[in-house]
């Protein structure tokens, strides 16, 4: 009997301890802080990870107006060796949590958050009464999913769940304290109630929302909260319909009605005809101009609506309607529509070039006119990032249009748009540089060709034909004396480009054993490691299905031509991870495009029957199985490894040439 009593007492003590907050409040002065005065934080770092720090900061998380705000303050060390900071509070500050750290907040050297239990305290008002939000803040601090916000960054790991009875007591206290205004923090309050009530929550939520809908003074914002919760969390059709009816009666043109109408357009898997009908009706009821007069956080709705409608118009060849949309589009939305439709149609030849030109020419001036509308500002932390993004995207859209104009031999128009490119955009893309060369040749503008070629060389964005053209111009000016050509060419490259290339190559050095191999050539012969003895061997892993691999071919041809007479260097294009008759595919493609490569075929793995035996053995070195992938082999070891393609043939040639020459000069 005595043992049973002791056991029950222990259970009771345990239950009581579980029903207590896990955070430490002893660091705050006064012990029961009020909003009527500042709150002092006093931190003793002795025996903690920050004990020997000479600079400690306090990351303060304040629950105010039912949401989290975070600030960081430097602390001062007093004569007693304690670290202190005064934290100013507002009348609405209901709860405070503090984490201590050294260094940068985002990447601190050391932190102390009481081993994820927390340092925190609730506040009272000037009369000693709890501030509205105090109990919700206490709950949300220990279960961040309740109110979200920046409080997630307080913890190192996801906090363990608190007992339901404890959470229920906080919910009850908060409702008693601020129940009359609980619609101000409805989502957080309902998250707390869900944790507290468990399986009983749906019935509670249905009853509470139904009761609220009886009130006559509900604002559009409050109805929006009710709808959002009912549709995304409660998913009760009856309750959703009740809210929709109230919204359409009281605020038929409001933000909540707009969101409901948008949500209803997104259901199912509609056809293009259904998308067009649905989205056109939406825009008739909720014109974008109306939203722009009183903008809120619903800009995403118009972005999605116009993207969907524009793509549906384009796919159904209603190109006039597609172009007409640009009367209403901001730069961000118009850019995405042009990228997804115009650029894709040009690349994959989905629309005739004459028709594509008509629509592209109609919309591009509108894009240019709206490049300063700041429509990307919410996508970036800093204005400079948003501005840079606009420049890059406009350059990309101009690239597509200039390419189209060049194909149609509309050289004067193409040159006009070329001059609208940013300074980097004019010369940093090798493919665009070659197009501009063709445009200048089409215009017979010989005076501009040499400056274009020299600037392209400075940006290290040259194609094989551009090198040929530059060399011919040089020889014409130096009566067929090419002795100084290489020095002239090297002098065109900027010091910044040279330094960046050296840093890139230095980053890609490796020292990895080359697996044994037996690889078949295009002629049906075989090579083994013995054939590479005393050579520096460049291997380009590629496949016919890999577009970046194919795009890198001109750069690899430049490299092959450069080392064609060098007996110390061998260059191979090794097809891998292909299917079907991969040998004929590779050979026919390369020869059909006029490239002069030494071709190899990767061996078939007998265990998987996949054509990737050598490549897969090198994946531990690569870190992934993506291609294109270049390696350089010397004395049976892989010494250099780089992946991807920058888009510049000359840059690829320079990269591999630099690595080759460094390896050649090794002792």
UniProtKB/TrEMBL annotation:
SUPFAM superfamilies: Thioredoxin-like. Residues 1-19 form the signal peptide. Keywords: Isomerase, Signal. It holds the Pfam family AhpC-TSA. One of its GO terms (molecular function) is isomerase activity. Residues 508-665 form the Thioredoxin domain. This is Thiol-disulfide isomerase/thioredoxin. It comes from Sphingobacterium zeae.
């Amino acid at each position: 009997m005595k043992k049973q009593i002791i056991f029950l007492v222990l259970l009771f003590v345990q239950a009581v301890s579980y029903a207590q907050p896990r955070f430490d409040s002893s660091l705050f002065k006064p012990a029961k802080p009020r909003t009527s005065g500042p709150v002092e934080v006093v931190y003793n770092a002795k025996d903690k990870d920050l004990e020997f720090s000479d600079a400690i900061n306090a990351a303060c998380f304040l629950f105010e107006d039912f949401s989290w705000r975070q600030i960081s303050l430097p602390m001062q060390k007093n004569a007693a060796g304690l670290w202190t900071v005064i934290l100013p509070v507002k009348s609405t500050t209901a709860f405070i949590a503090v984490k201590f750290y050294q260094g940068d907040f985002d990447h601190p050297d050391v932190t102390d958050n009481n081993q994820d239990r927390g340092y925190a305290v609730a506040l009272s008002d000037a009369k000693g009464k709890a501030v509205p939000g105090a109990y919700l803040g206490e709950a949300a601090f220990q279960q961040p999913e309740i109110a979200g916000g920046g409080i997630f960054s307080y913890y190192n790991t996801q906090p363990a769940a608190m007992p339901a009875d404890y959470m229920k007591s906080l919910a009850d206290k908060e409702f008693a304290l601020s129940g009359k205004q609980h619609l101000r923090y409805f989502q957080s309050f309902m998250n707390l109630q869900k944790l507290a009530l468990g399986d009983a929550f749906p019935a509670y939520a249905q009853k509470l929302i139904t009761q609220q809908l009886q009130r006559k003074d509900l604002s559009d914002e409050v109805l929006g909260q009710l709808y959002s919760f009912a549709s995304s969390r409660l998913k009760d059709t009856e309750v959703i319909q009740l809210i929709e009816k109230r919204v359409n009666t009281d605020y038929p043109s409001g933000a909540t009605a707009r969101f409901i109408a948008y949500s209803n357009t997104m259901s199912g898997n509609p056809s293009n005809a259904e998308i067009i009908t649905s989205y056109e009706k939406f825009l008739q009821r909720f014109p974008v101009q109306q939203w722009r007069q009183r903008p809120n956080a619903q800009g995403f709705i118009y972005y999605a609506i116009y993207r969907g409608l524009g793509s549906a118009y384009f796919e159904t060849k209603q190109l006039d309607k597609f172009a007409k949309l640009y009367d209403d589009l901001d730069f961000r939305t118009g850019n995405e529509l042009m990228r997804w439709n115009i650029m894709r149609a040009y690349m994959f030849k989905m629309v005739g070039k004459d028709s594509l030109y008509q629509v592209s020419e109609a919309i591009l001036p509108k894009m240019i006119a709206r490049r300063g509308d700041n429509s990307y500002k919410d996508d970036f932390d800093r204005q400079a990032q948003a501005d840079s993004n606009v420049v890059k995207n406009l350059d990309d859209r101009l690239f597509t249009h200039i390419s189209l104009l060049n194909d149609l031999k509309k050289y004067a128009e193409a040159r006009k748009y070329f001059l609208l490119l940013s300074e980097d955009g004019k010369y940093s893309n090798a493919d665009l540089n070659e197009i501009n060369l063709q445009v200048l040749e089409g215009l017979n503008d010989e005076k501009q060709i040499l400056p274009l070629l020299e600037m392209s060389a400075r940006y290290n964005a040259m194609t094989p034909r551009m090198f040929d053209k530059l060399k011919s111009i040089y020889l014409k000016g130096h009566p067929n004396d090419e002795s100084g050509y290489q020095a002239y060419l090297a002098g065109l490259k900027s010091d910044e480009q040279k330094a960046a290339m050296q840093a890139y190559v230095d980053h890609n050095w490796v020292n990895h054993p080359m697996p044994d191999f037996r690889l078949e050539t295009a002629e049906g012969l075989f090579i083994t490691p013995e054939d590479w003895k005393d050579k520096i061997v460049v291997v380009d892993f590629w496949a016919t299905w890999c577009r970046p691999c194919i795009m890198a071919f001109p750069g690899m041809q430049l490299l092959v031509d450069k080392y064609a007479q060098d007996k110390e260097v061998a260059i191979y294009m090794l097809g891998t991870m292909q299917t079907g008759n991969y040998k004929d595919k590779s050979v026919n493609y390369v020869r059909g495009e006029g490239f002069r490569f030494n071709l190899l075929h990767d061996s078939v793995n007998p265990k998987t029957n996949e054509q990737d035996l050598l490549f897969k053995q090198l994946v531990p070195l690569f870190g992934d199985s993506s291609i294109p992938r270049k390696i350089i082999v010397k004395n049976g070891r892989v010494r250099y490894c780089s992946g991807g393609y920058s888009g510049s043939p000359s840059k690829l040639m320079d990269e591999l040439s630099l690595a080759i020459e460094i390896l050649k000069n090794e002792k």
